[in-house]
From TrEMBL:
<protein>
    <submittedName>
        <fullName>Isoamylase early set domain-containing protein</fullName>
    </submittedName>
</protein>
<dbReference type="InterPro" id="IPR014756">
    <property type="entry name" value="Ig_E-set"/>
</dbReference>
<dbReference type="InterPro" id="IPR013783">
    <property type="entry name" value="Ig-like_fold"/>
</dbReference>
Length: 99
């Protein structure tokens, strides 16, 4: 799941990436072009039973990403704005920060 929060006075968007806990055995990371494709650990939340990562991204841009679950399984977010072929025989999700 992807949640976006647009700010009226800032040129950035708060983006929250979430995965349901039942999809993950032990670990989930977000891998994205905004982090130079370096894995970012997602944290397990206590209340919502999800894995979550929150960041702020520049407005009016697009970013590619995927989730890596349990160090072995690649997953796309079903709520991605678009999908783009990644050159490895599958697609990356795309999150847009255009309002």
């Amino acid at each position: 799941m992807i949640n976006k929060r647009f700010f009226k006075t800032k040129d950035e968007v708060e983006v929250t990436f979430e995965l349901p806990e039942e999809q993950v055995d032990s670990s989930a990371v977000l891998v994205a072009d905004f982090s130079d494709w370096q894995p970012i650990a997602m944290r397990r939340t206590g209340k919502g039973k999800t894995f979550r990562f929150k960041t702020r991204l520049p407005k009016d841009s697009q970013f590619e990403f995927r989730y890596l679950i349990d160090d072995q399984r690649w997953v796309n977010d079903p709520q991605a704005d678009l999908y783009r072929p990644n050159g490895f025989g599958s697609d990356n999700g795309l999150v847009s920060t255009y309002e």
